[in-house]
Amino acid sequence: MSPKAQLGGIYPRSEQLIELTRSYDRAKTDLDTVRRQIEQDTIALVQLQEDSGFETFSDGAFAWQDQLRPIVESLDGVTTGTRYDRWFDTNTFYKKPTIAGKIGVHAFEPKNFIRTDLLPRTKSWKVTLPGPYTFSELSENLHYATQSDLLTAVATAQHEIIKRLKDAGVSQFQLSEPCLVYRPYREKPSGGQELDNALAAIQKAVDGIQAKFSVHTYFGDATTIIPNLLKLPVNTVGFDLFETDYSQLKFETTKKLALGIIDGRESNAESPKWIAETATRVSKHLTGGDLVLVPNSDLKFVPRKVADVKARALAEATRLFEEGR
Amino acid sequence: MSKLYPVQEIGSLAKPRWRTKGLTQPLSSKDLVEAEDWAQRLGIPDFQDRAKLLLAAQEQSDRVRELLELSTIYGLRLFEQTGLDNVGVGGEQQRVEMYEHVIRGVEGMKVLGHVQSFDYKYFNKAVAESKIHRKHPIYLQEFLDVKKNTKGQLKVPITGPYTLIDWSFSGHYSGGRTGLSLKKQKQETKREFLLDFVEQVIRPEIRDLVDAGAEWIQIDEPAITTHPEPADMELFVEGWNETVRGFNCKFSDHTCYPSEIGYKVLAQYAPKLDKCSHLALEFANRDGTSLGVDAKHREGYRDLEYFIRNGYDGEFGVGVVHVHDFSGQVPPGSGKEVGRNILESPELVRDRLLYAAKVVGDPEKIWANPDCGLRTRTWDVTFAKLISTVKGAELAREASV
Q1: Does the distance separating the beta carbons of B261 and A184 come in below 8 Å?
Q2: Residue A13: which of A52, A61, A48 has the closest Cα?
Q3: Confidence of residue A188 (pLDDT cuts 50, 70, 90)
Q4: Cα separation of A316 and A321, whole Å?
Q5: B332 at interface of A, judged by CB pairs closer than 8 A
Q6: Is the Cβ–Cβ distance between B318 and B301 less than 8 Å?
Q7: Measured between alpha carbons, how far is A213 from A206 in angstroms, rounded to an integer?
Q8: Chain B partners within 8 Å of A24 (Cβ)
Q9: What is each CA distance from B287 to A83, B172, B281, B344, B385, in whole angstroms?
Q10: Number of Cα atoms under 13 Å in the Cβ half of residue B203
Q11: Are A38 and A17 spatial neighbours (Cβ–Cβ below 8 Å)?
């Protein structure tokens, strides 16, 4: 067993980029200046991943305004007005998509999703997208007769987006599905027909595409649905270790488990030693598969300098884990 | 208050450019052109004398003190001119914003850097590096300035302890717990951090305000509805009850922009909040814009029912005007869209108030207010919205006779 470290999702913007975007918002800086700094932020994150020995690279998604926006902006039939909704139980917000018509995918620039032009050619590239269930749940449906119809339409559209990104060179896709596990507003954990529909939608989104896929859950306890997720035709299943009680679980799988083992919501930097020891404890519940060490969620919830420390610790922990075997 | 549908402010106003610039650099007479214009509109007769003082101030500390008091007077006059029954603290002109203003007054908290809130908006997030305590009074000088400069009814909005700790990293408080699941460790950490914040920062502040004459304190807790799990709600109640314990003062809660079921859950716990005699809530944001006083037209206000069903018997501050960007349809008679704003008509405000009174079952329990502070709107838009709110409350009173 040889765990790898990966980042995913939206990485925090640097203080320089934050200052420039604020200035842009006040019409005191032009968009080109902001774009140049986004490139600088991306290059810095690439460098960090190179220096730390990452093998799969994320670009940090520094231009993404929220976790759904690039998808929304690639779709016909979906709009956003000015309504912001809270992103789960964080103090951050996203523009709520409104499903106003039949969903279709229009022409888009792959670089709206990932800056492949800034990533090293010799490494594999990973992009993180909201899973079809989460996207559907966080949208306002004004068009489709049922939520299930919407889910199918979203999955079909995402399949097309993934195909085009694959053609642009992306080889790994993380589908984030926090709505499968963050359910304080539901009486029961995910299950029944709704879960079946969600799993079918994920399957539809990835169907037939030759790429590596992971389904990642966060902000909730994944204990009850991990067995279902492991049946999906994906390479990796991930969960949030700060929410999931893994002590009673036994995993027998050939898939990889992505452990959300650094907390994107706390500033304390987990030490590489602690990460490696915790991963070792979890590995004792796993037969056959392999581990990937990842942040539990996007790291955008901590300031940039905190995220950098955490990312480096993650990579260092994989070496300690190896040494401790 | 015997008058039906009294109108209150709820939080912060936009900071005028001269106020913001003057905090960090000397002002010129050109910088004060806008201030002079608004002085005439708001009736600030000693503006010229105050402007001279501002321009002549040699020491930054003198200039800042003068600026903060003057901008507070502007906020108070704006609220008075529009006819509000409660002028709060004049739009929180003396605060950076609701989080950082407090954090900078707390020993042991260190600002770590910015975190995205949405799009190109960010907030500075801090960590508890050691056990915390209050460095100095946080809201007291503002309250004293307000008291000196108005005869209107006052209310002091303060940021609640649950929100302050929820928006911070717990740092120092997260160490030393073993043998528990990571989730349980986080919960224990949160409780210790919260109760320390209450004892070491919030209660001393309330003590100072009450001793200085504050009779109504609004505790802003926007974070609570983002964690609608029972463990967090119980913790919120524990923190609230400890906060208000022993104080002879009116307390209200302001919670806005909840999660999907935020108000439904808050409604279950509101009756457990000691001395909480008023809830100021946001509804206009999610309401339709057509006129009407039935459930179909006033869908945005349906969550009020949860509070009644759960037995909350206090007053409601009902958000009747939207405070953020607006894009949508505004039917004739409901107001108009101006730039990125909706200027709600008095008739739309009236209908929202009448419907709220119908749901609550007692018009005497209904106050009118914006959804939240109007700090993202220009003063012109704020002025228009508040005038509309006051006129709408008058129309609701007429309709209730």
Answers
A1: yes
A2: A61
A3: low
A4: 9
A5: no
A6: yes
A7: 8
A8: 120
A9: 12, 43, 13, 12, 16
A10: 17
A11: yes
Q: Which residue has the tokens 């709060």?
A: B88
Q: Is A169 left (phi over 0), alpha (psi -120 to 50) or beta?
A: left
Q: Amino acid letter at B394?
A: E
- Nearest chain B CA: its distance from A103 CA (Å): 21
C-alpha torsion angle, residues A231, A237, A242, A248 (rounded to 10)? 40
Reported as a single tens digit per residue, the pLDDT across A163-182 is 999 999 999 999 999 999 99
CB pairs below 8 Å between A and B: how many?
103
Q: Tell me the whole-structure pTM to 2 decimals.
A: 0.90
Burial B124-147 (b: 16+ CB within 10 A, else e): bbbbbeeebebeebbbbbbbebbe
Q: What's the confidence (pLDDT) of residue A207?
A: 97
Single-letter amino acid code for the residue at B330: V
Contact A219, A89 (CB under 8 A): yes
Q: How far is B100 from chain A (nearest CA, A)?
A: 14
* Six token digits for residue A118: 């800034």
For B233, name the nearest residue in chain A, comparing CA atoms only.
A184
Q: What is the pLDDT of residues B240-278, one digit of tens each?
A: 999 999 999 999 999 998 877 899 999 999 999 999 999
Q: Looking at the partner chain, which of B114, B174, B285 has a beta carbon nearest the beta carbon of A268? A: B174
* Whether the Cβ atoms of residue B300 and residue B287 lie closer than 8 Å to each other: yes
* Residue B62 to chain A, least CA–CA distance (Å): 29
Chain A contact present for B247, CB below 8 A:
no
Q: B 118-137 residues with CB below 8 A of A?
A: 118-123, 125, 127
Residue A252, classed as helix, strand or coil, is strand
B181 touching chain A per CB within 8 A = yes
pLDDT digits (tens, 9 = 90+) for B152-186: 999 999 999 999 999 999 999 987 777 778 888 89
- The reply to whether residue B228 touches residue A185, judged by beta carbons under 8 angstroms, is yes
Per-residue pLDDT reduced to its tens digit, A111-128 = 999 999 999 999 999 999
Tokens of B372: 């939240």
Strands A251-252, A286-287: pairing is parallel
Question: Which residues in chain B have Cβ-Cβ distances shorter than 8 Å to A305?
Answer: 112-113
User: Nearest by CB to B169, which of A66, A82, A266?
Assistant: A266
What share of chain B in percent tops pLDDT 90? 88
CB atoms within 10 A of CB A324: 11
The answer, for B306 touching chain A at a CB cutoff of 8 Å, is: no
| A81/B328 touch (CB, cutoff 8 Å), yes or no | yes
- A242 vs B112: CB contact, 8 Å cut-off? no
Q: Cβ A82–B167 below 8 Å, yes or no?
A: no
